[in-house]
Predict the structure.
Amino acid sequence: MGSLTEAKLAQMAGKRSFERGLGYTDAVSGIEVGDGWIKAFVRGTERYETELLLGKRGRLSGRCDCPYGQEGNFCKHLVALGLTAISQETDVLRRGELAKGRAQGLDAWLSSLSREELLTLLKQETADDRQLRRRLELKAASARGDLDGIRARIRELLDIGPFAQYGYVEYTDAQAYADQAGQAVTAIKALTESGQPDDAMVLAQETITLLAAVAENIDDSDGSLTQIGADLADAHYDACRHARSDPEKLAHWLVTHTLDDASDLTDIDPLEYKDLLGKRGMASLRRHAVNAWQANPTGWAEKQLMQRLMKSEQDTDTLIAVHAADLAANGHTHLLIARELDTADRPTEALQWAERGIDETEDLATIDTALVDYLTDRYQQAHRPTDALTLRRDHFIARPTLLTYQRLRAAARATGRWPAEREEALKLLRSDTTRKDTHSSHVLVDVLLDDKDIDTAWQVATDSGARDSQWLTLANQSHAIRPGDALTVYHRLIAPLTRQTGDRTYERLISLLLSIRDCHNHLGTPELFTAYAADLRIAQKRKRNLMRLMDDHGL
């Protein structure tokens, strides 16, 4: 049960569903435990069937037939089952052991039957269980090496028709489909194990194509189909490892697959096949990748493949050529190139590309800030503080924000020019504020607060306006010296909260009440706060959680 923890449940469900699940632990009944799964019923609006799947590598998923769960969500009922299993871990583990004991008993009984008795039993079971009969038919075809028979059976297994309504497999049927598709993977693995890896490789590639063609018509919220895709990729790699296939043909398939939408299903990485491809195969892989990229130099998949391939080969020049063929307008690609050149110990070229990114960006307001940061650092390392300051100033003028102001301040202080630069920066923001630019007035308040110039910030907020969060900061930073002004802010902010509900609202309301009490204490009017709090209690008395919080804080 290593993958089943409260933290994992909270991560899967989200805060709201996790908290609601806490109240349903008493509604869990009929817990059953098997190898990697826990099932139970949870009483909600109706009686819901839930199942937690404890996968490998700490993977946790679940299914519930409640309306929210049928949409693919990890619901409160699954949380309740998980919490109950954790609290009853000893009993759950005991039941798991009992399940193993029953399985061992079944094995012992089957082992005691004669060949004739086993054949009779199998014939009876396959007559009653169509799925079992189909699985055995597939195994029989694999054992005979009947490639056409296996291929036909795999097509049947991957047909979504029996599971789909209106051409789509809903969440409630997705696991059953995935279980059936898993039989195709098992058959491919069996071919490899029986000494037919070349056939297994071909079938794996065909199966990947077939499954990818229907994947978008399946609700994979619980990741069951994604797991089948991963298993299929493993089966393909294992078949290739044992096969005597042409490395050039394999390389061509790998590139074609990587550039196809099917790659999203299997996540096959061509570079993981490096040892199987050998020098001839890797040369072919590069050739096909280059041809595909040259045909579509702005294609995301083509660029990603080329970048990974060139990095693995440490071919910096070709890697730069890939980036340079599709330069972003905001200088981001120039930054990527500069960093690659740094990695290759080519700092002069890296600096040139970074400066080129600044020069080629038409509007500095849209520039990638990371490029500005990179180039400023390079200037400072090269003992060019004036160039660093100029870049920071230009960026602030183009995009006046608190962040660009802070970066300008740091660069100006490094040159001893901050007082003059600050005056010019504030002049720019004030000129925009005069033109009724609300954004600039808000930025001006932010930078004044950041400079600890509270009085000026308060005046700007009064004259030109401020956001509620800024008013709250102003009040919090000055309520000891301007309690009357702060009190007015707190009362205005608390008014809309009294018309809302919810624990987060109540927590904000309590914080404001504590600040209002502090203001009255500074003003020497604690009796006014006592009366205010009493009136608030009367008006909000139906909100029990709020009343409890007020009691806890002595309000």
Summary: The longest strand covers residues 47-54. The chain is about 70% helix and 5% strand. Residues 41 and 49 are 5 Å apart (CA to CA). The chain has a mean pLDDT of 90.
